[in-house]
Design goal:
mainly alpha; 11 helices; 76% helix; 0% strand
Length: 297
């Protein structure tokens, strides 16, 4: 039995928000790693998962979670691989908007059907506002998306939604470490085909890989899975939209990218939606975010 202190809704929101912000820095770090070490996106994901699992394994307690290895790990690998495939087909802006835009809707539908979670009007309204901000932030996604690109986006979003819903009843520590282990095993054959080891600036690559393993992986996913214990699935998926906002800011600061007025406005709209949703979650208490139970569980 777990005797750890119960997490409050406020703490859960902080955990999920911090995780999303940390994920947002991973894109810039991955781009710099690609330039410095000439590693493919799949190889970056493999090392991210493998090193994250190794870090968490040092402090892990209890037995291996084979449910996380066999269910969560492959789903995380599919989410990453499908997202990279979507980027190759449609570009970053369109892939981000479709994947992250459809994820809250899939989480809401899956939570209602499989977990019996209620669909609050406020949460749905905030989700709609956040998606509008996301569309502005990604530049409106003016480029057309073909069927293959859209399909990859939906596969990635479905895998993310599965992870979000399936881990609601799993211990956060076990999900993170063993989910990474399973994901790394799934990505290994794909990564090996394009080269596993960096061929450019070795020291820079090692430092960037260390950052990816610690901050946007081990720390972020541990916080996210822990926060899911008290924050509703829809709320968590909407708050996770902080990731593209932080990624856009990191691109401007670290990579010299430019942000248009429309994108800046989209970021402001997205932030307003997240603040509105957080205030509603705190006001309503942990009922909507608590783990839904079933008879006999």
């Amino acid at each position: 039995m777990n005797h750890a202190p119960a997490l409050s809704v406020r703490q859960g929101l902080v955990y999920v928000s911090t995780a999303a912000a940390a994920w947002g820095t991973g894109g810039a770090a991955g781009a710099m790693l690609h330039d410095a070490g000439r590693l493919s996106p799949v190889a970056v994901s493999f090392w991210r998962f493998a090193c994250g699992a190794a870090l968490l394994l040092v402090v892990a307690r209890g037995r291996p979670s084979w449910r996380a290895v066999l269910l969560v790990g492959p789903a995380m690998a599919v989410c990453q691989a499908a997202y990279f495939a979507a980027i190759a087909e449609t570009g970053v802006a369109v892939a981000t908007m479709i994947t992250m835009g459809s994820a809250p809707l899939l989480v809401a539908a899956g939570g209602r059907i499989f977990l019996g979670e209620p669909l609050g009007r406020t949460a749905l309204a905030c989700a709609g506002l956040a998606l509008a901000g996301l569309a502005m932030l990604t530049g409106g996604a003016a480029a057309p998306a073909g069927p293959a690109g859209v399909g990859y986006c939906l596969v990635s979003a479905a895998a993310y939604s599965f992870v979000t819903l399936a881990t609601r009843r799993m211990p956060a520590e076990g999900v993170a470490v063993w989910g990474f282990a399973g994901g790394a095993l799934c990505l290994l054959p794909l990564a090996a085909g394009g080269g596993l080891l960096p061929t450019g600036h070795t020291m820079t690559s090692v430092l960037l890989l260390g950052y990816l393993a610690i901050v946007p992986t081990a720390l972020a996913y541990r916080l996210f899975f822990t926060g899911l214990g008290v924050v509703g699935g829809v709320t968590a998926s909407v708050v996770s939209l902080l990731e593209p906002l932080v990624a856009a800011v990191a691109g401007v600061v670290l990579l010299g990218e430019r942000m248009t007025a429309v994108q800046a406005g989209g970021g402001a709209v997205l932030l307003c939606a997240l603040v509105w949703l957080a205030r509603a979650e705190l006001r309503d208490g942990p009922v909507r975010g608590s783990r839904p139970g079933k008879p006999g569980c």
